[in-house]
Amino acid sequence: MRGGRMPQATSRSDATRAVVFSPLEGAGRAELVEQRLTDAIVAGVLRDGERLPSESELAKSLGVAVVTAREALVALRDKGLVLTRRGRDGGSFVTHDRDAAMRMTDARVRALSRIELRDLSLHYAAIAGMAAEVAADRASDDDLASLVEVDARADLGSAGGARRAMSRFQLEIAAVSQSPRLVHEELRLQAESGPLLWLCLREQAYRDRSRQARVEVIEAIRSVDPPRARRATTDHIAAATEWLIDEKSRLESPQQGPEQGRQPAPDAEDRKG
């Protein structure tokens, strides 16, 4: 294996937070700010009880007007995702409710067309697949050991734990590719697409499949087999996408109520976000 680690702290487990508060692309509408923060809260990137930046700080980091940030926070309060307190220790705080988060995520799945969901998957597969392919060619022994450790520490006992394990592993793969652009795009897509793409991790069978996919990618990297690493990555994303499309059909079924998608049994980890 060739190459060394990219000299950046890109493999930190909370690295997606940097993207949550990075400038928005396109017009800075309040709806875009609201959606980004909603996704981050639902995905557990922003945790229950966490204090958000002030309106002015949020506006500056996202590249929007203060009034836009304020409108987005009002919408988040109306959703029950943010609570604002006054006084010296006041501010806006995340109030994550698991059941409410699931309802909002399911509503977003219903709102997007199948074409949009497949396009989201295609974009993510292009980035993650390329990162895996390049990583298989450039990884050092230390890189491989780091990937093995990330997989070994994965918590598959809950959707939240499995999702964080996937996030860390994919981010580590991007870091091993030694491409700052791939790392940044991986971070951005994790923040914007991850909450939908990895909904399949609500089910234990898909959590187990996520580990199998990581093992396959690790073995491909160990064997210096770039095509195999890319294929293992894109096949896993394709399976997650098919689950998502199937879930959309279930949510839209006339026999189903608006909140009767696949409802996993609650566990301690998911109650925390």
TrEMBL record:
Gene Ontology molecular-function annotations: DNA binding; DNA-binding transcription factor activity
Region (Disordered): 244-273
Top-rank taxon, per record: Bacteria
A Pfam family this chain is assigned to: FCD
InterPro entries, per database record: GntR_C, TF_FadR/GntR_C, Tscrpt_reg_HTH_GntR, WH-like_DNA-bd_sf, WH_DNA-bd_sf
Domain HTH gntR-type: 27-97
Keywords for the protein's UniProt record, in alphabetical order: DNA-binding, Transcription, Transcription regulation
Protein name as it appears in the record: FadR family transcriptional regulator
Species lineage: Bacteria, Bacillati, Actinomycetota, Actinomycetes, Micrococcales
